[in-house]
Amino acid sequence: MIQTNLKTSGGYSKAALQRVKRHRTTEYTLAVHTLLTGLLVLAVSALNLFKPYVSDTFLPAMSVLLVISLFHAIALLLVLKFVRRNKRIAPRMAAIAGLLILTSATGNLFALLLGIQLLRRIRGQENPTSAKWEDIWESLTRNVAAMTGLSFIIFLFSISVCSLFTFDYSMATENNYSAILQHPSLAYPLGTDNFGRCLFSRIIFGARTSLIVGLISTAIPVVVGGILGAVSGYYGRRTDNIIMRLLDILYAIPGILLAIAIIAAFGANTVNLILALSIGSIPTYARTMRANVLLVSTYEYVDAARAFGSGDAKIIFKHIVPNSLAPMIVKATLTIGAAVISTSSLSFLGLGVEPHIPEWGNILKLGSTYLETNSYLAIYPGLAIIALVLSFNFLGDGLRDALDPKLS
Amino acid sequence: MGAARIAKPSHGSNLSCYISDVYAKMLLNPSYKYWLLVLGAPVNLIVLLYYGLHRKNDIYHALMNETRSELLEAGYLTQLLEETQEQLLRKQQFFKQHVSAERTERQAKHIAEAKFKETLFEETNRKLQSGGQQRLSYAATFAKLIENPVFLLLSILPGLLMYLLIGLYSNPYVKYVFERLIMSLFVILGVSVLVFTILYLSPMNPAANILGETATEEQIANFNRIYGLDQSYLSQLWSNIKGIASFDLGKSFSGNEQVTATIARKFPITFTLTVISLLLSMLIAIPVGIISATRRNSLWDYTFMFIALIGLSIPSFWQGLIFILNFSIKLHWLPATYNPQDWLSIIMPTIVLGTGLSASVARMTRSSTLEVIHEDYILTAKAKGLSKRQVLLRHAVRNAMIPIITVIGLQFGGMLGGSAVTEKVFNISGLGSYIVDKQFIPDIPSIMGGVVYTAITISLINVIIDILYAFLDPRIRTRMKQY
After folding, report:
1. Which top-rank group of organisms is this from (chain B) (predicted)?
2. Of all residues in chain B, what percent are helix, strand and coil, respectively (each to 5)?
């Protein structure tokens, strides 16, 4: 967004931007984000130094992270020097790419993306789908808002992985009556709650739950709804009628109420929460997929596949589904945010994740009782939720612009 | 309507001709055919009897036999057979298939016979038409009988339902509304079955939860007997569906109150809250979306869309808490909890509830207006010399509103459900917080009633929106007439 703002405001900045842009390959953007995300994880983990004690694995984990970040800096320099637009990359870079993919074990998915991108460029694929893929990547990496969103999501993912080693879980879950309701300080960057638990650690550990629940409860309806929608759009007539009418029933119940009913029946825990949220959003995905499949089925290549004697299953999954995925991906990204909000809302009502697990909704629920005296207990977890949801929305908007310029 | 225009020349009164035309059309529609035959069973039986008696001496069969012998005499079948055989051989040659001669012959014979039948059928029909005659079909029988005023008069009473259905079918508007209503009835029934089944499958034991851990087995069995929980799935389901239809779901498990009476007391609160915030958010969001679309890529556009994106990302309970913290606790401007007597107390809940909707409506308005602005008719309107304002308001926005209203209709449902969270934050005793309170037991009739009546409201609102569309949008109107 900032970038486009600049574009409209004056010729000078436009020229300057163009100069930067010429050097800015997709690989460069990814390398910068890899390094920045790694450093951010390192910095946030380093806040633990002010704590009275750290976990046993803190020092080795931090040194490993430091080494990895150094390597990422080197990779960035190499990319800047050797990777040029429209030129093949020397096969020597394959070693760097391999190492980058290895370092993505820290949860830094930018490293994985960069590694794969480098390998693809080294292999020099030139088929048309790859070119299209390249375009999508390029327009996504140029979108500052989308990349910021993606950075925050990957940062949260990475810190969720790294916190296994660098954070002490007992800080977030075990009561410490000597430090009850303390205001933010260096040892407790966001203060402590009524049981003396460090709010900062709790939010970091809560990221894991929120991300996992959000992703799974989006993935399940995407797959189920996608299959139902594809079948119903491809076969049409009676199949279509039966599937869509049954899904209409699900569609008539508001998602939150259906989730409440399911949780009322089967009890409040994480698995039921995921199922409850998933079932409610199946019809939306089925409708999106059906509309796409109806459109794609009329294309010539589907007729061609049929003339070659391909079976229905093969036509659906090899020709139709891959070509109708784009709107599904956009929709899924935009609704992960909604799933995160629903998760925390249900936890806030006491219907979601079990209360002893540090999840953002749970933390907020606890904090809301101290609204008058210790309002930070309610403010910070809420900010975390907003940041995550906003990131998914930014990413979703960026993906929509990149995948289908018509949709924007 | 359409049927009358293409009516074939026929004698008898206009009405009977009209009825028989619609009747014939309905027979072609599989779902209506079934209802038509069932609803008008007495009349249809007589028609069937008449049809069976007169079918044998129908001219069609004689004509068909005649044509068949003519074609056979001309050697048409053998000619077809030879042609097909040759085609098959060539095809096998091309694909390098090896098929036994016997099988090829059988295949050829099969295909040739099918082709012969087709030709025979076409030829017979051609002859019939050239002779100005009609094949005696079931529908034609009906038409012939109904031409007789005596039959028409006699059949009115036994076939009243059928004639009503015919009248319904003949008017596309009425038919559309009728079909839409039937569909939502089906959805409501489905919702009731689904919600009941979910609650029935529950492993929870409400009796133990209400009576406490010390309850004896006898007490639990007694509780289950009173609330009918010991009955079979189907009988419980039936009584629940009956209860929903007759607005009598019995007493709730805890609190000893009539479920529907409680819902009737709580529902208006939720509904009022939702409607006010719906109106408020439309009032804000639609102008914002239009401004963003007309000044695309301007600072206004970016600011508005950024705010909208934040609005989409704020969890409503957190927003509520922050509002309470700032406006009630710190500034003492507004009361923190809802109180029906104090109109100031409804401000914060409506804003919180409406934020998400405003955000999505603003985004939708923007993209929908942008899409419309590039249409040809906007260019035409500009070319006509209309002012910018007129083009925008009369042509662009009017057309852009169509998808927006759909989104509002759909979001309204989400708001009715989502109000549960807002109600909890502001301590409003509406339907949403009622359902949440009852789910811990779980109080099956209360949850069932709350969820199902909310779903019914949403379905009805969507029906109304759909029907309004049908009358307002000329495109839908023409499509309606076509099918």
Report:
1. Bacteria
2. 80, 0, 20
Write out pLDDT tens, residues A23-75: 567 888 888 889 999 999 988 888 888 887 788 888 888 899 999 999 989 88
Quote the distance between the C-alpha of residue B385 and its chain's center: 42
Identify the CA nearest to B142 among candidates B27, B32, B14, B60.
B27
The answer to whether the CB of B444 falls within 8 A of the CB of B253 is yes
Out of B174, B196, B220, pick the residue that ends a domain: B174
Within a domain: residue B111?
yes
Burial of residue B203 (CB within 10 Å: 0-12, 13-18, 19+) is: exposed
User: Which residues in A lie closer than 8 A to residue B436 (C-beta atoms)?
Assistant: 260, 349, 351
Q: Is the ipTM of this complex over 0.90?
A: no
Residues with Cβ within 8 Å of B85's Cβ and at least 6 positions away in sequence, in order, are B104, B105, B108
Q: Enter the pTM of the model.
A: 0.81
- How close A368 gets to chain B, by Cα (Å)? 7
Give the Cβ contact number of residue B243 at 10 Å: 19
* Record: contact B455-A264, CB cut-off 8 A: no
For residues B159 and B301, membership in a common domain is answered with: no
User: What does the pLDDT read at residue A54?
Assistant: 80
On whether both B159 and B263 belong to a single domain, the answer is: no
CA B360 to the chain's CA centroid: 24
Check whether residue B305 and residue B163 sit in a common domain: no
| Domain count of the fold of chain B | 2
Are A80 and A28 a contacting pair, CB within 8 Å?
yes
- Structural domain including B152 reads 14-174
Compute the C-alpha angle B179/B181/B184, nearest 5°: 110
Whether B457 maps to a domain, the answer reads: no
Domain end (from B117, B148, B174) = B174
Residue B239 located in a structural domain: no
Do A160 and A208 form a contact (C-beta atoms < 8 A)?
yes
CA distance B286 to chain A (A): 18
- Element of type H or E holding B406: helix B398-425
